Amino acid sequence: GMVDPGEVITATLRREFCEEALNSLERSGEEKDTQERIQNLFSQDHLLVYKGYVDDPRNTDNAWMETQAVNYHDDTGHILDHLALEAGDDAGKVQWADISQNHSLYANHAHFIQIVAEKRGARW
């Protein structure tokens, strides 16, 4: 997602997750339990995976994409296991998935996942 003018990146991450993975724009109001889980997830320490220029097919000589890739980790599963994912906004579909280096991902996303796997001691 894109950062709105004047918005801090942590607010963008929370907003985009809620819009695209929880379909918050179509819901009349999030349940209190869901709000608490989201607050707990995004208030914890996070890992800055990458910040800067990314190779992206939308880049031109006069305009290019820069990103911040961030990892929030739910060690116990207490936060994310009970969230009902639902595609929203411009997300076609959403689901939790096991991932490996054999998956075809957009632009630099595979590299970001590899960094997270290495930092978290996960298999890649």
Automatic annotation (TrEMBL):
<dbReference type="InterPro" id="IPR000086">
    <property type="entry name" value="NUDIX_hydrolase_dom"/>
</dbReference>
<feature type="domain" description="Nudix hydrolase">
    <location>
        <begin position="1"/>
        <end position="119"/>
    </location>
</feature>
<dbReference type="InterPro" id="IPR015797">
    <property type="entry name" value="NUDIX_hydrolase-like_dom_sf"/>
</dbReference>
<dbReference type="GO" id="GO:0047631">
    <property type="term" value="F:ADP-ribose diphosphatase activity"/>
</dbReference>
<protein>
    <recommendedName>
        <fullName>Nudix hydrolase domain-containing protein</fullName>
    </recommendedName>
</protein>
<dbReference type="InterPro" id="IPR039989">
    <property type="entry name" value="NUDT9"/>
</dbReference>
